[in-house]
Amino acid sequence: MPQLRLALAQVNATVGDLVGNADLVVEHCKAAVDQGVHLVVFPEMMLTGYPLEDLAMRLSLIEASKAGIEALAVRLKDEGCGDLVAMVGYLDQKPDVLDAPGIPKNAPQNNVAVIHDGAIVARQAKHHLWNYGVGDEIRNFVAGDTINVVQIGGIDVALAICEDLWRDGPSAAAKAADAALLVVPNGSPYEADKDDVRLALCARRAAEGDCVLAYVNLVGGQDELVFDGDSIVVDASGTVLGRSGQFDPELLVVDLELPAATATMPSDDERFGGLKIKRTIITSEPFAAYEPLPTAQAERLSRNEEIYTALVTGLRDYVHKNGFQSVLFGMSGGIDSTLVAAIAVDALGPENVNGISNPSAWSSEHSKSDAAEMAKRTGLSLDTIPIAPIFDSYQESLHLTGLAEENLQARIRAVIWMGLSNQHGHLVLACGNKSELATGYSTIYGDAVGAYAPIKDVPKTLVWELARWRNEIAVERGETPPIPEATISKPPSAELRPGQLDSDSLPPYDLLDAVLDAYVERDLGSAAVIAEGHDPALVHRVVTLVDRAEYKRRQYPPGPKVSRRNFGRDRRVPITHRWREDV
Amino acid sequence: MPQLRLALAQVNATVGDLVGNADLVVEHCKAAVDQGVHLVVFPEMMLTGYPLEDLAMRLSLIEASKAGIEALAVRLKDEGCGDLVAMVGYLDQKPDVLDAPGIPKNAPQNNVAVIHDGAIVARQAKHHLWNYGVGDEIRNFVAGDTINVVQIGGIDVALAICEDLWRDGPSAAAKAADAALLVVPNGSPYEADKDDVRLALCARRAAEGDCVLAYVNLVGGQDELVFDGDSIVVDASGTVLGRSGQFDPELLVVDLELPAATATMPSDDERFGGLKIKRTIITSEPFAAYEPLPTAQAERLSRNEEIYTALVTGLRDYVHKNGFQSVLFGMSGGIDSTLVAAIAVDALGPENVNGISNPSAWSSEHSKSDAAEMAKRTGLSLDTIPIAPIFDSYQESLHLTGLAEENLQARIRAVIWMGLSNQHGHLVLACGNKSELATGYSTIYGDAVGAYAPIKDVPKTLVWELARWRNEIAVERGETPPIPEATISKPPSAELRPGQLDSDSLPPYDLLDAVLDAYVERDLGSAAVIAEGHDPALVHRVVTLVDRAEYKRRQYPPGPKVSRRNFGRDRRVPITHRWREDV
């Protein structure tokens, strides 16, 4: 049977950085050529970064992407990659642009270009647009109607884009066209505890298509999302032929021996999940026989390592892709800010991590000593600025009491962090965990202040677990555990009034987190949560806390946003991107 | 020809308040019966409020809405409205629920129920889902496939829901079925300077359908949106038969004389923009002849009155629907906070408006005296809390300079407002205008702090225009103009350093606002803005300011949000709603 050396380029693209992303493509194509690769596949929207959200509709970006993909084809040939077939995601435009209700402005399409010998030999637009969870693609893209089958070295290769794989159609089309390989570029974000749904899906579609399936995904952070890579090649019997690591860039090279292309072709008017088939022959002669490489299959990360790595990746890319080098945050000596410190040190290096200790009249001695111990162990920089004199100066005019007085302390700290951030250029991090944010155990414009909140999606029980895990691997590696044991073992407290403990206001964290998992993560109604066996009074208490907190959080948005239209909502464009209108 | 007395119930529904909204329906139905009405039509999603965003997918809300609409039908009969035909929007569920990719969770539908004699005699789901601008309905609703034609008093009445009217289909279906009246419930938000596109559209569709068209819309504020009513009845020749006022609730009653229903009916498999027709006969006998009422047509508001009323409506409903009575904000004596004060006094009454003057070492005498003059003229409450001692207490530790020092003052003020808000229960307002927010002339966590920003969508030049207009109508009404003349005429300044003026940092506001209108409002690329005749250097400067400000604003979100799924985006549910999970 003919052979094909396939490479999956699992890379970290940056939204809006067309020049940097094109350089990444060229670099990986050259590496692929050096390794004798015949076909290299890049992730979804490689050239523009992903997801673009409403940026996809900006005419200047569409035009730059259309011109950019043409230039990239020429450049690849110029740089010695003309024989290689490269599949590169980019932003295109439906040729017969319509300006009508229901058509996104400027008719953008989420496309893949098949590049060979300095030219684009085939183009395909995503058909099934991702429009649930964090996806809102129907708002931004016009759906495509074609699935390409391209012949490379006498092997027929079918192409599907990300969400298309989750629906019926592409695998049926691949089977109908007798394609031996189905390649799928993706932009698929990480979720914790998702099991191995990707492999199961890929194996199922490979079996349906009676072909080998190659799935390539992005890596890196984008706003609140983290892409975890985990690119896979699997055959029709479910055997994994290659699998890349998680979170890190990688060029996964897999040697395949596949059935030769046949003349089988469905009739012109046949449709597969709405898609018609278009066939393109690039090279019909099989490549000269060669010795195949051994298959590579990366070790899977453990649950805690996987989550911790996602947190490190998300923070690192948020900071760097936004043009910062260093971060600053309040270090109370508690477990949350200490875990954030450990993540930040791992992501950015201790020289770029600045903790600020802001003791109040009610801060315990161990708060200060635990923060200092963490700084000593990791080498991060720790400054201490007591808030008592500032607190007194406010209270001379305000005379606040109760909750207002507690919040005042948290807000004084935030003003200090933002002042130091403005003066020295560090990005401010918020250290809240998911359990306290979900229940509103947090001060708006106080500890909630920050550009990025590394552990906002980590429940408190998992905060402790990750802290213990991080210390354990340090021991395994023969390093000093970064997190002081006392920080892990002491009872949590906000220290905003004398003797305060979290348990005064919240249910025990193990019970709380179990209900939050059902009500927030799994989005069950309260009746269904109770039906799982949780105490009804506890469920009632937690659901009330969550609903009230969500309501409060939304009442106080970040501050005013600017709308595209009067009285409209803020434009939905990514936070992290480098696209600029040039005049 | 048969007669029909039609009422359009232009009401202010509240998202999630099913009990309150049902009461509104009953109240208006009883008023309609008292006036001899045969058919009353309520706006889109009347029972649940609109827009629901991701709340639409909550099973408990869907079930409450389905039960609620059945109960409402029974209650209307019990309360003496059994003979009346009422069309009421509500949240329903596609009967054969699918849990599959591409189907919104729990298969919600944006429905209208046709209620008569204690029962629901027809149901219709919205077909064309609004998915651009502030609409994201494809994410939340399953599309319908049917257009209803119901016969009332021997007259055939066709039904279309909001966005369906903007597409081809409903008017063609009405014509094909020989319907004499096409009724359209809407949730259509206000936009400034939209001209009279609604009337033009209604007249066009009436002509296409060769029928009378009745368009009914919501009124009131919902988060950042304001619904302006403006319900319309227009015939096939474009003659307006009735039109309600803007922004206020109203029961618009219109007498129609219409052709009797014919037996004309398209074949079962004919489709109109994807819609099939379903016919229901409620009453086929014409109503006894009666003396028609004169037509009512409200006076249109002038541009400034319209915008000012939208601002008052939006603020009033944001405060009240979120359970607050009173507001608090920084009053600098400048034009922005003074206009906000005038809007707040008109929306809530002076007894619910609290201004805080926070002079610094660099505040001018006129700042303090102008704020005091405004308070004196309107009766709002004004407190003065100087920030110099607090500023000094921060600077003893921080020694901030330049921009960081300027921002510190703005943030000290915000901490004072939030402290007083927590202590006394007032909602904090942010007073920034669109020109300064768009260009980033504002402090994150400083003057940008607030639950609601009444003039965030008002450019600076319009701030002055509205202030002058508000004073002029006061004079016309023989009242004291609320806004001190000096506040309107003095040059704008942030007063964060000695002698500072806005013009040190920004282009003149008339030039700035013209470019912002093109670049932000009309979403033109910079090349197109220059092609309109603006100075390229000015365009470059403004575009750079806007892009950098947008980027900065997004880097510092409000603080962490809580996601439904790990690493996902915040749930998209409305800020203002009263829906609660009961256990």
Describe this structure as you would to a colleague.
The structure is a homodimer. With about 575 residues, the first copy, chain A, is of the alpha/beta class. The first copy, chain A, folds into two domains: about 5-280, Nitrilase/N-carbamoyl-D-aminoacid amidohydrolase; about 305-505 and about 550-555, HUPs (Rossmann fold, 3-Layer(aba) Sandwich), CATH 3.40.50. Chain A has 16 helices and 19 strands. In chain A, the strands form four sheets. A seven-stranded mixed β-sheet of chain A has the order 13-12-9-8-7-6-15, with helices on one face. Mean pLDDT of chain A is about 90; it is low at about 560-570. Chains A and B meet through helix 9, helix 10, strand 19, helix 11 and helix 15 of A and helix 9, helix 10, strand 19, helix 11 and helix 15 of B. Chains A, B: In the C-terminal section; belongs to the NAD synthetase family. Belongs to the NAD synthetase family. Chains A, B: GO terms for molecular function: NAD+ synthase (glutamine-hydrolyzing) activity. Chains A, B: Pathway: Cofactor biosynthesis; NAD(+) biosynthesis; NAD(+) from deamido-NAD(+) (L-Gln route): step 1/1.
Task: Chart the SSEs and their pairings.
2 copies of one chain form a homodimer.
Chain A: E1 3-10, H1 18-34, E2 39-41, H2 59-81, E3 85-93, E4 108-116, E5 119-125, E6 146-152, E7 155-159, H3 163-166, H4 170-176, E8 181-186, H5 197-209, E9 212-217, E10 219-222, E11 225-228, E12 232-234, E13 240-243, E14 250-257, E15 276-281, H6 303-321, E16 327-330, H7 335-348, E17 353-357, H8 365-378, E18 381-384, H9 388-398, H10 402-424, E19 427-428, H11 434-439, H12 460-476, H13 485-489, H14 509-521, H15 526-531, H16 536-555
Parallel strand pairs in A: 1-2, 2-3, 6-15, 7-8, 8-9, 16-17, 16-19, 17-18
Antiparallel strand pairs in A: 1-14, 3-4, 4-5, 6-7, 9-12, 10-11, 12-13
